Amino acid sequence: MALKEKRLLIVTACNSQVHRINHQSAYDRNEIILSFADHVIIGYCKPGGNIDRQISGKTNITFLHNSNYLPTEPTLMERAADSDVITYRTSTKGGELFLDIKQDLSGQEYLKITQSKHQGNKGFHRETIFINKDEILQFKQELDRAIEYWGLNPIKQKQTLSFKREEYGNAYLPWEKSADDYLLRLYAEGKTINELTEIFERNDGAIRSRLQKLGIKLR
Length: 219
Prior knowledge:
Elements: H1 16-22, H2 26-36, E1 40-42, H3 49-54, E2 61-64, E3 76-78, E4 83-91, E5 95-103, E6 109-118, E7 124-132, H4 136-150, H5 154-167, H6 177-188, H7 193-200, H8 204-213
């Protein structure tokens, strides 16, 4: 009947044979189906778990409330969506990033992260992950590792610079011509690197590097 009415009829099964054939989880298949459907009717299951999260916030969902559903006499009930607690949105080079703290029907809160990327004339491609509240600190630790690996933590860099300037007042500041001349004269007079660090308020490496840049062969 669905085919006669030019609608799409999809029958899925969640067993090991299906997983071995298409190498996709039920969650992945549901995501694909939901992204293309104009209207979704969900039956023969109890709301909860991943399917509960996948349909959260969607307005085109109808749930078959009666488990003894008969095709000739359907009993339909509109399913309430999970409620939004806090929603954040930020623009990226490729599209948008949404972070939603949501609450499911049982009162449990979770984080929903959606990345929406431009696909030229084809519209958008969306990827979504869900993180339970008790997993969020572990997730943050892994993010911090990636940020640390790429050196993308401006707060830590600022703290490092502040610490250096507490120890050496001129740390990372540009050298002026008068300072260069004074440095050369003092070094020629026999001042040690350690003495020069105190005079110029710069660390050992900065003094050595500047002298070498000025053409001095260190003794």
